[in-house]
Fold these 4 entries.
Entry 1:
Amino acid sequence: MSINLKTCTEEELWKFVGKHLADNGFDAVLVGGAVVSVYTEGAYESGDLDFIIQNLSKEKLPEVMKNIGFIKNGKNYIHPKCDHLFIEFPSGPLGIGEDYNIKEDEQEFEGTKIKILSPTDCIKDRLASYIYWGAGECFDQAILVGKAHKFNATAVKRWCEGEKASEVFKEFHKQVQK
């Protein structure tokens, strides 16, 4: 894949890096705000991409990322031509609040399967940031995804109830229906 790192979107960078990681044996799932960017076609821009590695030690990650020009700088991976986005690899496991039974979505890109949170789990992830850290912008991001994509409202409601946040679901659902 050819990518213009100076102007790429979160979605383009996800596909480029996700394919590279998968081709090198990493089971990597895109999580966080970049998922919102992908699902809203750039209506929201996160500025970074977070991948959870589910199968291998991160020991080989610096070398694998260096092969596509990304150098580790603290906890981030940066590319000299891509000064508007950076990449992080937060610790796993893949989970949202107390829910660790996450089934990621797979998309095929240039013959390789790459992974991303489903719209339903993206909404739960954003609501988790709102519930636990009071991040109002994450509540707004959940609404953006809810308006842009079909999602399992029953699953989101059940998850919110499990997190003792039924009122959050009610307000979220009301906003999505507007």
Note: The helical segments are 10-23, 33-39, 61-66, 119-133, 136-148, 153-162, 166-177.
Entry 2:
Amino acid sequence: MKISKLFAVLLGLILLFVICGPAFAGDKTPQDTYILKGNPMGGVKFMHSAHAKDRKIKCETCHHASKPEKAATAKEQACSDCHTKVAAAPMKTNYKGAFHDSPMAKKGTCIDCHLAENAKGKKAPTKCNECHQKANV
């Protein structure tokens, strides 16, 4: 009798884990991976450690000092905290402009670095759809 109760409880727990397990699994995206959203071409998956640790890019390259007219509220903030889709005073640079200095994205923070890496013989994405992907939501 005790074995059948133990078996029933064990079977119930296994069933509970099978049914509820996916809900607790959460997002499989590593904590150092960010999806930069907002572009109709798709989001950009940005792997922080691949840039900061592996390639030793200085923090200030992306996390620039705040401007006096828009003081930072944290040491390192999301770009979108200040750079909104449409630049709102006192900001002059919109969200897209924070990454791409020209309308065709031929220069800017990301593409300049990727082009420089490719010139050194490394492989960095330089075409729009290599970074912007609909799957990155």
Note: Residues 66 and 72 are 5 Å apart (CA to CA).
Entry 3:
Amino acid sequence: MNLPNFLTVCRLFLAPLFVFWFFYPPMGWVWAPVLVLALSGLTDVLDGHIARKYNLITQLGQFLDPLADKITIFAVVICLAVRHPAVRILLIFYVIKEVTLALIGFLQLRTWKKSPPARWYGKAATVLLYALFFLVLLVPTLPQEAILALSALPAVFMVLSFIFYLKEINKRKKGL
């Protein structure tokens, strides 16, 4: 296993650690989940950078990296939705988007060798989600109205990325 894949596997283990420390911070240290999320984000950036720079891109990495992204975001958005009802709309959008894309991917598994690569709009949605996650984690007393307002931009990008990915999938389907 190469270094980028190792970092991705580490990220898979950080998601459940985030969940556990979100609800049961070690010794009452409420910053623990923030550090886990930051470490997860750092390993995400590093594994992609190292894989591209040193030509260490593998099929395993191309499968695990987006999986780790989805598991991490899903874990964080569920945790935040439990404590902050305003985040529940993002949870609904995220579940609809990911379940739909996963079902399409599963149904098309026989005809496609790879899923569509990450695009700028998907990455923008992820960055905006992470910014919201950090803000809500760092300022836990943020009013629900503020969280709802701050959730609007990530939600819009999430919906737009969903639409653009569906268009790309449809284009690929027509090209077969």
Note: The two ends are 33 Å apart (CA to CA).
Entry 4:
Amino acid sequence: MKKQKHTEEAPEIKQEIVDNETTNNQEQEITTENTDVAAQQIEELTQKCADLNDKNLRLMAEFDNYRKRTLKERMDLIKTAGESLLSNMLPLVDDFERGLKAMETSEDVVAVKEGVDLIYNKFIAFLMQNGVKAIPDINELFDTDLHEAITTIPAPAEDLKGKIVDCVSKGYTLNDKVIRFSKVVVGE
């Protein structure tokens, strides 16, 4: 009987072995297909990575060139920014030279004084055209944003307390920005 059982079981085992082989073959085919798909995806991603890396390098190079160009333009602008201002001051220098020459030979002090006053007024007008204005000082309220107190003295009158009594050095603003504070004496 034992032989008979062995032969009866054999077809089932054979079928199972065939099924396992078929399953293994299908799994190998699926694994091969998955490997091919994965390799293709890896290749595509590698290409995209290389493209992005190239774009990034180009962008960095463009930005570096832009930065260098703007830095050079800024340096050129700084070098030549004062050129027009200084060239507009040259007529004032000419006036001063003529005034100094006139002082050597002139004995009329009043005429020399008038000439110096004209040059001074021309210079103040030039400064105003370029945005420079004098800060008001005498009899004004003391303001730490505009004035620098050198000293304080007793106020000569009651209404001058906290106000500027004397100005030692005028202050100036350039387009409403203080470029030099007024040095003043304040009444207490």
Note: The radius of gyration is 47 Å.
